[in-house]
Structure formats: structure tokens, C-alpha cells
Write a structure and sequence with these properties.
Helix 3 packs antiparallel against helix 4 and helix 5 runs antiparallel to helix 6. The protein is an all-alpha fold. The chain is extended and about 60 Å long. The protein has six helices and no strands. The longest helix has about 30 residues. Helices cover about 70% and strands about 0% of the residues.
Length: about 150
């Protein structure tokens, strides 16, 4: 509550010197938001490629290509903008931060990939019921939770 009160008081002071430098990166937002939407749309429509007609792959590929292009434009814009970018990408030039983010990415793939792939494997591959697959996924979650120090 106190932090919100302080933030509200700072926002009401238009003459504060810190407010003059903190400008919202509108162009970066306009590049990043549609890029993420298009990439998510194309990834979610990959499962429909086999079930739809022949022209659906063009829509999915076009959305992927345009989304990746907008994402690359966002990275280029962020690297050129020295004052208050939407996402600071310069922190990835620090070796320890890059290594920790790479490790977080790999551990997230192993954990969340297991949560998504295990039920699919048990239901589709082994022919188990949904209830039994959920029991196995629960065991996977407990197994990942026990080694974590508190």
C-alpha cells in the first residue's frame, strides 16, 4: 500500500526530473505486440495443418514469417534506442546473466515440456485413461518439487 501511495504521488508530480526521462517506447510496443500475437497464432495453428485444406499452411507460414520479421525489427529498434527501451536487451551482453537465462530456459523446457508431453504420451501412446495420465503428471510435479530447497 505504501509503495502504491508513493508511486501515485510521483505520477502526480509532472515537474519531477525522473518523469521527463521515463517515456513509454510506443514504437517498440507497436512492433512487439503484433509480433507476439502472430507468433502465438502460428504456433497454435500448427496442430490444424493436417486437418485443414491445402491453403492453411500458407496462412500459418505467413503469420510466422511476419511475426518473426516484426520481432527482428523490435530487436533492432531496441538496440538503437539508448533512452528507456521497452525491454532492455543490453543485459544479455553480461555473461553471467546470459548463462543464467540459458539455464532457466533449458530447465523450463524440461519441466513444462514434461507437463505437456507426458499426458499426451500416456493417453495417445500407451492408451491410458485421462485419470491415470493425470496421476502420472501429478507424480511428475511432486518429483520436481521435492528436490527444491526451501
Amino acid at each position: 500500500m505504501m509503495i502504491a501511495k508513493d508511486d501515485l504521488q510521483q505520477a502526480r508530480q509532472p515537474s519531477a526530473p525522473s518523469q521527463a526521462k521515463n517515456r513509454f517506447d510506443g514504437l517498440g510496443f507497436m512492433l512487439l505486440a503484433p509480433a507476439l500475437v502472430l507468433l502465438m497464432y502460428s504456433l497454435s495453428s500448427l496442430s490444424d495443418l493436417g486437418h485443414q485444406g491445402g491453403g492453411h499452411w500458407l496462412e500459418t507460414g505467413g503469420a510466422s514469417f511476419i511475426g518473426a520479421g516484426l520481432l527482428l525489427l523490435f530487436v533492432r529498434h531496441t538496440r538503437k534506442r539508448s533512452q528507456q527501451p521497452l525491454i532492455r536487451l543490453k543485459v544479455f551482453s553480461v555473461g553471467s546473466f546470459s548463462a543464467s537465462m540459458g539455464l532457466l530456459f533449458l530447465s523450463s523446457i524440461s519441466f513444462y515440456g514434461g507437463l505437456f508431453a507426458l499426458p499426451w504420451m500416456f493417453i495417445q501412446g500407451f492408451g491410458h485413461s485421462e485419470w491415470l495420465a493425470s496421476v502420472w503428471v501429478g507424480a511428475h510435479g511432486l518429483g520436481r518439487w521435492f528436490p527444491v530447497p526451501t
